[in-house]
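All the exercises in this workshop are built on plain-text protein records. A record pairs a protein's sequence with a compact description of its fold. The structure tokens are whole numbers drawn from a learned vocabulary of backbone shapes. Once this layout is familiar, the rest of the handout is easier to follow. An example says more than a description, so a record of this kind follows.
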Amino acid sequence: MSSGRVVASVCVVAAGLLGLSGCSGEKPSGIAPFTPGASKSASPPTTMKWTPEQQQVIAGYDRYNGLVTRILNKAEKIDMGKAHQVAKEPSATKFLQGIDGTLSAGFVRAGKVAYTFSAVTVVGDGASIQTCLDLTSTKFFKPGSPSEAPLQNPPPSWATVSLAREGGSWLVSGLKDGEGTCVTG
């Protein structure tokens, strides 16, 4: 594989994993972020570090990540209806296009993505999550192709996830990643 195709493949894989790279990263203004400390997983710990509203925002992001994982593990097919249950447009379309590119290139994912939340800000019907995104335990590779090593993952980096409240749910509306390196956990 040429170096240009490797770079393109890494971009496709990252877009498939994150789904929304390059989308709106604007943070809601107004209330200062609540930063009680970091969580080691995408699910809030049982020791209530987050308010109930912040937990709902995190749950919205968890639903988004769960769908990404199920599609990349081929437990579910790409489905725009399901994407609209976890992400707003145009983010839902970009998210599915990224995953489709990853799968079409023949890559599969093994391992887990780690998230360390440092802040959850809620202002009206908008919210943002500041998280350290760690892909180091995740590998993207082509099955049955032992001559091709798994793609190299970037070091952990800060990401800002934007969400919008629709009805009783929080939907991902943007993601800006690669905002400097960080340490998880």
User: Anything to note?
Assistant: The first helix runs from residue 3 to 18. The mean pLDDT is 76.
